[in-house]
Amino acid sequence: MTSEAQPVEHARAPIAQALSDLLEQVRGEDHGGAVADYIPELAKADPNLFGIAASTVFGRTYATGDTTHEFTIQSISKAFVYALVVDEHGIDDVRSHVGVEPSGAPFNAISFDSAGRPMNPMINLGAITATSLLGQGGADERFDSIRLGLSRFAGRGLQLDEAVYRSEASTGDRNHALGSLSRAEGMLRGAVDDVVDAYFRQCSVLVNVTDLAVMASTLAAGGVNPVTGDRVVGDEAARHTLSVMSSSGMYDRSGDWMVDVGMPAKSGVGGGIVAITPGKFGIGVFSPPLDAVGNSARGVAALKHLAHEFGFHPF
Ligand code: DON
After folding, report:
1. CATH number of the domain that residue 118 is part of
2. What is the model's pLDDT at position 15?
3. Ligand 1 near 77 CB (within 6 A)
4. Ligand 1 pocket, 109 CB below 6 A?
5. Could you say which of 181, 202, 223 is where a domain stops?
6. Which residues are noted in the entry as substrate-binding (predicted)?
7. ipTM of the predicted structure?
8. Does the pLDDT at position 222 exceed 70?
């Protein structure tokens, strides 16, 4: 797969103009937030970067702002890896290892249900466990299948940010601990070190905001990448993923999110968020300063505007 970006429409089209007006409006508001610094390499992000992209299920992509700047996908990868895992194993097998209940807890919490399953695949505990179910072998083999899957969602070959990966790996004791706890509960498959290493690399995959929109539109289109025509996952895997994103994608703000925005979504500490209007659009937003729970502050604001002024709130 090439690393060529897909053609994007910028100005002129009414949707592109509306996105660009929205970006300027949100940029002019004060949403506060702070760039993530718990992984040293992430602290270097420029807080002024801001981009918004939307991709239709018919394969047209509109983007505005910092549309080609690459950043690490971080926790947004959890949604797409979950889709790949459900596609590979079926929901029943996956669900016997990772639950689908919102945890109401922060992304790095120790959060098991009464059956010993991680509460859901959107928190680190559940995501690391989901990663363990995809493919097998050492960290390299595991990451190869993750990178290929994420690249098919994006429609181009995605690369790894080595510096962020090394930074994650050298500060990732808590994630190793979460992996060990999941293995002790009989949920994580394989060797903890290999799985957690693959998870660190999964989080360190580079995307731009346009990639996020195309990835999201693949879920919106039931698992077919609308730009490349590639069926990345089955319809059922896409549907289950959207359900879990709806209930748990925005961490301990997931309930507020459903009221305020309503779209299934997933955020990452790199400053990206994906959101989906099923059957219509995939949306990507990117702005590094994060709010108190780790969601992009400007990204949340932009999606609230899209939910209400653009009528994207599904309820
Ligand atoms: O596990 C971690 O610490 C990160 N690599 C990913 C966390 C993340 O993006 C949480 N999101 N908001």
Report:
1. 3.40.710.10
2. 87
3. no
4. no
5. 202
6. 75, 124, 168, 175, 199, 251, 269
7. 0.95
8. yes
